[in-house]
Amino acid sequence: MLATELLAPFMKDAAELQNSLDLSQLKPEVRQQFEQELSLLSDKHKPDDIHFYAPLFNQDSILRYLPAHALLVLDEPALVQQAMSKLDEEAKELRAEKVADGELPANFTPPYFTWEELEPRMRERQSLALTSWGADDSSPRLDFSPAPLYAGQLPSFINQVRDLVRDKNRIIVSATRRAGCPSCLRRQTLLPTP
Length: 194
Prior knowledge:
This protein has 194 residues and is an alpha+beta fold. The chain has helices at 14-19, 28-42, 54-57, 77-100, 115-123, 154-166; strands spanning 72-75, 127-130, 170-178, 181-193. The protein is built from six helices and four strands.
C-alpha cells in the first residue's frame, strides 16, 4: 500500500477537474477510464490508482513547506542534477510514447520537478553544498596531502618525529594493526600540525 498525501481532490471544483485534461486524443477505452476516475475524484471518491492523479493537485515542492531559516543541504549537487536530468529524459521518452499511443493526455502534468524548475527555488534558500574534493573548480583549495606511511620503518619514523619536534610541530600518530598479527603495525601515519 502506498501512502498518498492528496487532500486537494476533495477541494477542487468538479467542472475544473473535468476540464483540466484534454482527453480528445486518447483511445476510447482509455478515455472512458479517465472520465470515470475524474468523475470519482469530482464526487470526492478515490479511484483505485489515486496517486496517479497527484500531479493534478500537488503542484508544489517540499521547499515551500520548509521554514524560512532552514538550511538546505545538497549532497553532490552536480550528481543530483545529472541524475535528475537523466530521469527527466527517460520520463519524457516514456511520456511521448504514451501520448502517441493514446494512453496519456498530452497536457497531463508531469509528476516531478526538473532541476531547472527547482534550482531557482533552491538558490533562494540558505544552502550547503557537499562535494568531493576537486569536483568543482570553484571550490577552495586546501593544502592537504596524504600522510607518509612508516610501516616497518621505525628508524625513519623516529627521525621524522625528532625533526618535527625540533621545529615545534604538534604530532599526531595513527596506527592500525594488521589482521592476524596484533603485534605488527600495519600502518603508521605521522601528521605534523602547526
